[in-house]
Amino acid sequence: MEVSYRRHFDQSYMMLRGDVEPEEVCELNMLSYNRIPGLLPVEAEVADGAVRFWYNITGKHTLSDYLERKQADAGLLRRLFETVDEVLKEVSAYLLCEEHLLLKQEYLYLDFAHNTVDFVYLPGFQEDLRQSFQELMEQLLRRLDHSDRLASAMAYEMYQQSLGRETSFQEMLQRALSAGKGGRTQEAEVAQRLEAAQRPEVVQRAEAAQRLEAVQRAEAAQRPEAAQRLEAARRPEATRRSEAMQEPGTAAGGARKFLPFPERGSFQEQEPQKGIRKGLGILQRRLRERAVRKETERSGESAGTNYYGPSVGDQPGTYYSPIAGDQPGTSYGPSAGDQPGTYYSPIAGDQPGTSYAPAPGEPPVVCQTEVLMARQAVQGILRHAGEGKGPELRIDLPVAFIGREGEGADLCIPGRSVSRMHARVERVEEDYYLEDLNSTNGTFLNGELLEYRQKVKLSPRDRITFGLEEYIFL
After folding, report:
1. Alpha carbon distance 265, 251 (integer Å)
2. Which of 466, 469, 367, 356 is nearest to 421 (CA)?
3. Distances (CA, A) of 327 to 124, 303, 305, 307, 461
4. Closest Cα partner for 159 from 77, 43, 63?
5. pLDDT in tens, 212-221
6. Residue 464: predicted pLDDT
7. Going by C-beta distance under 8 Å and a sequence separation of 6 or more, which residues neighbour residue 85?
8. Are 393 and 414 in contact (CB under 8 A)?
9. SS3 316
10. pTM for the complete prediction?
11. How far apart are CA 153 and CA 172, in angstroms?
12. Which among 377, 386, 380 has a CA at the least distance from the CA of 427?
């Protein structure tokens, strides 16, 4: 079955290609001119002898995407069974065929805003309803929340009913829903018995807590007395230590004796002046040595290097060779045969640091510059680059779902322009792939809008926009 996805302005569509028999033309008219509850709105288009069905899936997510990140609970199963029951009644009322319903995870769409489930009705498609629903229940059992007793009761009852042929499909649905209601009553009874069984344990815990509190209170009362006894025992030792540590200039009564200041000309005043004079002498000697070293380097450079500047007709940034009578440090023009911007190898008698013309028949030496670009390492980080402050998102999971904050996504982005489940990033070894999840305001990669389920590889410095929130991939 050929399936593709398109986005037109703010609307998302799923396209299915099918073959329609002449007797099924009435179904096309029935679907085109009526909004049947529980079925996705569809428009038929005939092109190249084939019929294309365009289903409006704006703001909806497939059951397969939902089960990839969450488990099936009682609320989801009840909503699914009730919607199937209602859809079968509507299909019969509009003279449609129930075998044309697609009961597969990738074609069941959940609308969280309106808490509904929508099915795909495809003319020309034929499959046994009971068999397809049995396969759907097998997939749901793999993703069932077994800690939810209501969900377990409904799911296994429905699966057991789908294995037989004695009852109709509507009766199967009613029995599964009744099992869920009975499961709710049973769960309440189990909770009451568990509470009654745990009540003595609760009382014991309260008594143990009271005993522990009494022991702690007694210990707190004894602590000040023990501290006083310990302080009294340590006091003589502390007194002895303080007397031993008294300085020689301290009197017996505790008054400190201050020594007189030294007189002028004493050793304490002359010693610092001697150190200052010694430091100044060392500094002057080092300055003289530095001046001599610079003068030596300057004289060596002027003696061993000849520079020739441009003259009339010279091109800026070009080196030319000297001619007869040239003086170092003087600007001269090019010699015969010189090519601007070309460097030539030296010949016999050349002086270091001087540019000369090429020898007869010598080709210019062309240097190739090779630029080595190292691949920038991918860090797996989405850094906010839009207005205001946004969180930095680090992709640590093999598959990370990106969505609105507080909606159960792995990476949360605050903002009304971001959908509940906006996009998904999948890591395959060292590469990252971005995929839009039928978001309302779209996902853009470097300014290009992504189609639903279009998987693209991310590169460092890519700019990704989720609705109105812009991020840079690092």
Report:
1. 30
2. 466
3. 97, 12, 11, 9, 55
4. 77
5. 777 777 777 7
6. 95
7. 170, 173, 174
8. no
9. coil
10. 0.58
11. 13
12. 380
